[in-house]
Write a structure and sequence with these properties.
single chain, 179 residues, alpha+beta, Immunoglobulin-like, 2 domains, 4-stranded antiparallel beta sheet
Length: 179
């Protein structure tokens, strides 16, 4: 029996890898397809010491309807949510004392329709509750697309209230902050 132990030790990993491949074949194909599609649409992709990273999702297609002649008060809430969106970038900044990785994150509001973008008066960003009491941040800098910079050690959903001239209620936009 002692002669068989080295053979079993040699075969354990190849058998495990083959079984894992057979079991997770469909999800792996789907994952590879999604990654390939995102790369074709312009997302960053890198392999390095920290592993494999796929960049932020590419921009969504602009609404089909021609909005060039519509005023902000003529657009409904759903149309405005399609026109305005949150973009973000994140870069590794440092390792914290507790061993967590800290990232420098920049978020901003974007739109394919510049004339409507000028109608924004302010943006109120709502960060993760761990930022309390500074989890609510306001930006009025139109020149920088209502940009907000902060540090993050974890991924979370960020939402923004976009206030427009001639509209009483803000538009609520969401973005998953990943890095």
């Amino acid at each position: 029996m002692a002669d068989w132990v080295p053979l079993f030790q040699t075969l354990v990993w190849p058998v495990f890898i083959i079984l894992a491949f057979l079991i997770f074949r469909k999800p792996a194909k789907k994952l590879i397809h999604v990654i390939t599609e995102r790369i074709h649409k312009g997302a960053d992709f890198s392999i390095g010491p920290q592993g494999v990273t796929v960049g932020s999702a590419p921009k969504l297609e602009q609404p089909k309807e021609n909005l060039a002649k519509k005023e902000v008060n003529e657009l409904n809430y759903e149309e405005l949510q399609e026109i305005f969106y949150i973009s973000h970038t994140a870069q590794f900044a440092r390792i914290l004392d507790d061993g967590k990785e800290d990232y420098s994150v920049t978020v901003w509001i974007d739109s394919g329709y510049d004339y409507l973008f000028e109608r924004i008066t302010k943006v109120v960003y709502h960060l993760h509750s761990s930022y309390y009491p500074r989890d609510r941040r306001e930006s009025v800098s139109r020149m920088q697309n209502f940009e907000l910079k902060f540090y993050a050690w974890g991924q979370f959903n960020l939402n923004a209230e976009v206030f427009l001239k001639d509209r009483e209620n803000p538009i609520i936009l969401w973005r998953y902050i990943n890095f």
